[in-house]
DNA sequence: ACCATCTTGTTCAACTTTCAAGAATGGTCC
DNA sequence: GGACCATTCTTGAAAGTTGAACAAGATGGT
C-alpha cells in the first residue's frame, strides 16, 4: 500500500478522474436513496434489510453470526449491534449454537419474514428504477463483470478456496 | 415510489440479481477499504477527504457551505458537523460571507492543503489498485457511462439548469 | 492434562450520521 | 415599511459505526 509514497505518483488521467467522480456520485446517491426508501417503508436502513434478506435465503432461515457478517461484508462488531436492534424489533432472534458453545445463530422470525414479504416489492422497484430500468442489457452485463473484477481485487480470494479439506 | 406496492412486482431476473449483489459487494468493499486507508494515512474518513479535495479545487480554495454540500452530495447538516471537526483539526477555517450575511465559506487552510499533498499519492494509488489497474480501457469507459446514467436517474436535473437567469 | 494460541461474539468509548427544530437573513409583494 | 415565505446554516438528541479490549470456548501440540 505504502509503495505509493515512493516514486512519482501515478495520477489519474482526465478520463479516469471523470469516471471516478461519476462513480462516487452515483454510488453515494444510490445508497442514500435506498437508505431513505427503506427507512421510510420498512423502518430500517439498507444494511439491516440486507441482513434479513440474507437470513431469509439461508437454510432454516438462520445463520451463524460470523458467516452472516462475512456474507454481508460487515464487521462482527457492527453485526452485533445490528442484530441487537433487529431483535428489539422482533424481526430476528438469537439462538445458542449447539455444536459450538461460543456460537450464536441469528434466526429470522416469522414477523421478520413478514416485513420482508411486505416491503420487498417496493424495494425491488426502487432498485429497478435507479438501475435496471435505465441500463441496456449490455450495460447490465458490463456492470456485473466490472463489479466482479473489483470485488475480487478487494476481497483476496482464499488461496485454498477450492481445497475445502484444507480450510 | 409506492406504485410498486400495486400490481405484480417486477422481480429481478437471475442475471439482474447477480449483478445487484456484485454491485453491493464491490461498492461496500471499496468504500470500507478507502475509509480504512484514509483513516490510517490521513486521519479522516473518505467523505471528509473528499471535502478537502473539493475545496482544494475551488477558486481561492473556499466554497459556500451549501455549494460544497451539493457538490459532494451530502446534507448541509452533515456538512456542518464535518466542517466543525475539520476545523478542530486546523484543516479548514470558516469565514463569513461578504455578500450574504447568512452565508459561510469553508476555506481550506495551508495545513489542510499540506495534508492533501502528503496523502493524495497514497490515496490515488489505492483507487488505482482497486479499480483502474484491473479494468480494461473499454471497461473504464463503460463504467463511466453507466455511472452517469445512474446518477442522472437519482439526481433529477434541475429543469432550469441551462437557464441560469431563472435559478 | 496442560499450555499457548486462535476463534467467536460482545462491550465500551469515541466518532459520525440523521432528522427535526430553530435562529438569522434574504427576497418579494403589497 | 411590513407581512410572508424561502434560504442558509447550526444545533441537539437519537441512532449507527468503528476499533480496541475482553471473556469464553475451541484447537492442537506436548
Q: Ends of chain A: how far apart? A: 27 Å
Write out the CATH superfamily name of chain A: Winged helix-like DNA-binding domain superfamily/Winged helix DNA-binding domain
Given as residue ranges, the uncertain stretches of chain A (5+ residues, pLDDT < 50) are 1-5, 159-167
Q: What's the CATH C level of chain A?
A: Mainly Alpha
Domain HTH marR-type (chains A, B): 16-152
Organism (chains A, B): Streptomyces purpureus
Protein name (chains A, B): MarR family transcriptional regulator
GO biological process, one term (chains A, B): response to stress
Can you walk me through this structure?
The structure is a homodimer of 167-residue chains. Chain A is 62% helix and 8% strand. Chain A has helices spanning 14-42, 46-57, 65-72, 76-88, 110-132, 137-154, and strands spanning 62-64, 92-96, 104-108. The model of chain A is unreliable at 1-5 and 159-167 (pLDDT under 50). The first copy, chain A, is built from 6 helices and 3 strands, in the order ααβααββαα. Chain A has a 3-stranded antiparallel sheet. Chain A has a single domain (24-153), classed as Arc Repressor Mutant, subunit A. With 167 residues, chain A is mainly alpha-helical. The longest helix of chain A has 29 residues, at 14-42. At the A-B interface, helix 1, helix 5 and helix 6 of A face helix 1, helix 5 and helix 6 of B. The structure holds a DNA duplex (30 and 30 nucleotides).
Amino acid at each position: 500500500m505504502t509503495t505509493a509514497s515512493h516514486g512519482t505518483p501515478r495520477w489519474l488521467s482526465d478520463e479516469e478522474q471523470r469516471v471516478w467522480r461519476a462513480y462516487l456520485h452515483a454510488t453515494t446517491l444510490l445508497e442514500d436513496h435506498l437508505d431513505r426508501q427503506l427507512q421510510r417503508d420498512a423502518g430500517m436502513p439498507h444494511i439491516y434489510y440486507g441482513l434479513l434478506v440474507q437470513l431469509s435465503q439461508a437454510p432454516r432461515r438462520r445463520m451463524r453470526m460470523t458467516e452472516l457478517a462475512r456474507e454481508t461484508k460487515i464487521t462482527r462488531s457492527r453485526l452485533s449491534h445490528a442484530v441487537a436492534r433487529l431483535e428489539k424489533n422482533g424481526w430476528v432472534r438469537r439462538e445458542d449454537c449447539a455444536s459450538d458453545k461460543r456460537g450464536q445463530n441469528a434466526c429470522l422470525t416469522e414477523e421478520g419474514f413478514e416485513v420482508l414479504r411486505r416491503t420487498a416489492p417496493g424495494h425491488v422497484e426502487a432498485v429497478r428504477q435507479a438501475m435496471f430500468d435505465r441500463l441496456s442489457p449490455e450495460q447490465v452485463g458490463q456492470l456485473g463483470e466490472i463489479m466482479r473484477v473489483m470485488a475480487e481485487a478487494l476481497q483476496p480470494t482464499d488461496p485454498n478456496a477450492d481445497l475445502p479439506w484444507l480450510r
